[in-house]
């Protein structure tokens, strides 16, 4: 049962031997996103006001900042996993595939880093009201 056989592909053992792990990570981040985004939406609806000062105070709470950071990591990682599959399926040239996956990685890491920095800046009081 080599990696190139039909049964190897079914078991997730393609030539890169990482197909099943990629699939599993997509499912785990999807569940994490479902829980964290649900928490986020419900929390927003429960706020008494959406004024700047109220939002800064809300995000400044560790009970809010930590789940926001976890949600950011999960959402950007899930985005990266899903778009990587699309690029691997639809970009046929190996050089283009590598370029677009590298670009995707840069985008996902930069977006997550900027979001996390913003949350931390607010949480540690670096934003004037």
Question: What does this 3D model show about the protein?
Answer:
It is a single chain. With 129 residues, this protein is mainly alpha-helical. 78% of the residues lie in helices and 0% in strands. It is built from five helices and no strands. It has helices spanning 6-10, 19-46, 52-59, 62-90, 94-123. Helix 2 (19-46) packs antiparallel against helix 4. The longest helix is centred in the C-terminal third of the chain and has 30 residues, at 94-123. The protein is elongated and about 50 Å long.
Summarize the structure.
The protein is mostly helical and 129 residues long. It has five helices and no strands. Helix 4 runs antiparallel to helix 5 (94-123).
């Amino acid at each position: 049962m080599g990696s190139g056989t039909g049964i190897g592909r079914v078991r997730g053992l393609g030539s890169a031997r990482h197909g099943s792990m990629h699939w599993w990570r997509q499912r785990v981040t999807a569940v994490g996103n479902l829980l964290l985004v649900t928490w986020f939406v419900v929390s927003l609806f429960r706020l008494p006001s959406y004024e700047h000062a109220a939002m800064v105070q809300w995000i400044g709470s560790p009970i809010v900042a930590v789940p926001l950071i976890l949600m950011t990591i999960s959402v950007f990682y899930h985005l990266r996993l899903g778009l990587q599959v699309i690029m691997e399926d639809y970009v046929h040239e190996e050089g283009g595939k590598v370029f677009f996956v590298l670009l995707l990685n840069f985008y996902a890491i930069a977006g997550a880093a900027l979001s996390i920095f913003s949350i931390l800046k607010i949480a540690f009081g670096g934003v004037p009201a």
